[in-house]
Amino acid sequence: MLEGFTKLPLSKVASIERGKFSARPRNDPRYYGGEIPFLQTGDIARAGRIVRNWTQTLNELGLGVSKMFPRGTIFMSIAANIGDVAISDFDAACPDSVVAVKPRDGFDSEWVFQSLKFSRKGLAALSTQNAQANLSLEKIEPFKVHVPPLHEQRRIAEILRTWDEAIEKLEALRAARERRRLAAARQFFDPCHPKHAARPNDWQEHELGDVFRERVDAGSADDRLLSITMNGGVIDRDDVGRKDTSTADKSKYKLILPGDLGYNTMRMWQGVVGLSSLQGIVSPAYTIVTPVSEYILGAYAAHLFKSRRMVFDFERYSQGLTSDTWNLKFPAFSRIRVFLPPVELQKKKADLLDGMLAEAAIIDREITALQRQKRGLMQKLLTGEWRVSVDPSQSQTDEKEAAHG
User: Fold this and answer.
1) Strand pairing partners for 85?
2) Judging by DSSP bridges, how do beta strands 6-9 and 261-264 pair with one another?
3) Residue 214, phi then psi, degrees to nearest 5
4) Residue 350, Cβ neighbours under 10 Å: how many?
5) Which of 210, 217, 312, 341 pairs with 304 at a CA distance of 20 to 30 A?
6) Could you tell me the pLDDT band of residue 403, with boundaries at 50, 70 and 90?
7) pTM over 0.70
8) Which residues share a beta bridge with 214?
9) CA–CA dist 19, 43 (Å, integer)
């Protein structure tokens, strides 16, 4: 054991109390719908570090069969998103799918939070795998963590919190940029819809069949296999990250060329479409269209086709009895009507939106890099592989605090 470190069960480090009221049945007026925050596993998963919002509330009767925990409590999911942890920014109750963790005297609250976050995989591995995975108190309480002296706990927590705060700021910046992009997209593309109240006089109405041609060419065995994803657009199939389920016989696979747009015929109503910068072949489940450059630019169409009004029309024109069987083949796609601005204006709008997406991608990479750095720090600091330097006077003060509770 490292000098100064001990290994203790979580029950010695913190009190752990399970919520006392089931989250179901939802919205029962006897218990729900008041002003008392009632944290769900999803609230914790979305929080990151600090819970500032909630999706469900209890009334006084609901609180009577539950329990309120004070602001600053660490909440951990023990069902659904097992091992997710977050600190509440307000007094709150929780269901029996969540536990409230309160550090005991002599243990730093932020360090406990970081240790629980670091232990997520280990705790999740202890869950029972019945109809729904669940982690019991009997499994949580004896789970052991490496415990340094209090002065080191505080220093470790301070270091890791610095990374969390940097990540939170970047995530807030990303969210703000995304709101700005969506607002610009609404301003640009709502006038494309025929039912929009007004638009400039130089915009022209077209059917999509007038401004796109369907590509039905077959590819060759030498062409690389591509896929079309919701967020990544047209990418190499090997980059999808899922098992390759394509058939060995690619004779019916479709050719897609740079500048083409490809969409998932059965998921166009969800906006699964992308502009290709690659040459390759795609599954017959996709429809490939080529823009007529005199009327519409591919880069503009790629953004237009993800706008809320267009996605609504894609759903309306899709054919099939249920959403599982809806499809938008080219004949139906071609009947959809849109108003389009001059090509010069299309380019300006597409360039602006492309720039916004490029900026978002840079922020995403920065967030990913910080998250990776933090995981490495947690591995080193919370196991004692790296020790932190602490002011000796502060160490003595912390020891006295711990001794006197």
Assistant:
1) 76
2) unpaired
3) -80, 135
4) 20
5) 217
6) very low
7) yes
8) 289
9) 15
